[in-house]
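Hi R.,

Here's the input for the uridine-diphosphate-N-acetylglucosamine complex you asked about:
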Amino acid sequence: MAKASKTKSRSSLPTSPPPRIAIAIMAAGKGTRLKSKHPKVLHEIGGKPILAHVIATAERVVPSEDIFVIIGHEAERVREAVAGTGVNFVLQAEQRGTGHALMVARQALSGKGNSYDQVIVLSGDAPLITAATIRKLSDFHSAQKAAMTVLSADLDNPYGYGRVIRKGARAEVTAIVEERSATPQQKKIREINSGLYAFAAASLYEHIDRLSTANPHGEYYLTDMAGVFHRARQKVVAIKTSDAGEVLGSNTRAEMMVLDVRLRMAKCRELLEAGVTIFYPHTCVIDREVEVGADTVIEPFVQLLGHTKIGADCRIRSYSVIANSVIGERVTVKPGTIMEDSRVGAGAVLGPYSHLRPGSEVGEGAHVGNFVETKKIKLGKGSKANHLSYLGDAEIGEGVNIGAGTITCNYDGVNKHQTVIEDGVFIGSDATLVAPVKIGRGAYVAAASCITEDVPADALALGRARQSVKEGWARAKREGQKEKSR
Ligand code: UD1
Ligand code: CA
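And here is the predicted structure with uridine-diphosphate-N-acetylglucosamine in place:
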């Protein structure tokens, strides 16, 4: 009995509360090596800004109110690009190095009312980091009771990265040496600093003022905190990532493309896993949020962008670019079809070379063919517009045939007007429908008609000059020319 109560009291001993964690994301740098007028962290990989990837991952670890993005170069543009996430911003007006970035964030991270135990530092230019690795870094840091924990990785080619210097049996970290300051011996070290860290918040701000700018760049290096802590007899440790690819940075366009390919291929693998066939996946550009149903086939050189959703059993043929659109099951998209903010019903056939502009709704089993441009239209079930048309601001019913070359004249130079074509209508080739105009159910419009007035149901509308024929006219002309030349 006594034993049992002892066990019970031990298990109910107060365990140490989970640390209060803040994530700081350094994103103030210019990105000189990109030779770009745009800030580095707004360059896109995998279809969105590099910084947006880092924030999305951070948000899977802590709530956005505990995320602090340090901005500086083109601060307003950067802020605007990611403001929707609800993170905090810290302005580093002058960018004097990664150490300086954290100095500037002192108030936010350890000021009154903001008593964080742990500060995780992420780099705004290392977007492949995963939430699982951040949690591992954080847990390891807590378990080690360290002042600083470096996330490191073994790279075959460590060139350009800071190297982790370890010493002694416990293999604690004594320093991080930047490429430019490294001795030939240190350059051989393959364990690199990822630029991601966990700090004990109090220790960081107790010692951060000891950083100096005595280095080749004349900057405050956050990496020097390793040496600072070591000299102050505070514990610095490093934990290696299992996947070195996660910590790759993007200082140059070439490095960015490596990251982009990694993200794209990961997305393709995820879709292949889910039952989608993708031929030559390395030629396809498929954004992260895209969904595709099983047994759909994606041919080479296809782009599926934004929040596109494609049903099962479709075939998306080469050179099609589909953005923010929803496509039902069994749809065939023939080569070269461009589509944006549109919806396509089951069994429809599009292309080749169709252009569906925003607000196009193509019904079940409908066809939109070669060189047909649509905008803000509803094309009913089974209706067909197979060749060379412009259909804008139109409501087209079911079972309608739109002849080749049909144009809705929707714009009078000032306003846009609506064309209504009811069920079962037949529009002959080369008709021009001057909006606003309505063609009633089951009516016919003769080829080459210019329709300016409503056509009642079941009527035939002719809107063209009557053909006249002059017998023998051509022969007389030829004979007249012969006379002259004599
Ligand atoms: C940094 C590390 C290096 C590490 C590498 C990993 C330093 C001194 N070096 O080098 O050891 O191997 O990352 O990728 O930290 N930034 C600011 N304010 C500044 C300067 C930079 O916010 O004043 C931001 C940048 O926008 C960037 C991040 O900090 O997102 C890292 O800066 P960067 O110049 O890319 O450092 P690296 O040279 O890559
Ligand atoms: Ca970098």
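One thing worth noting: Residues 1-9 have pLDDT under 50 and may be disordered.

Cheers,
M.
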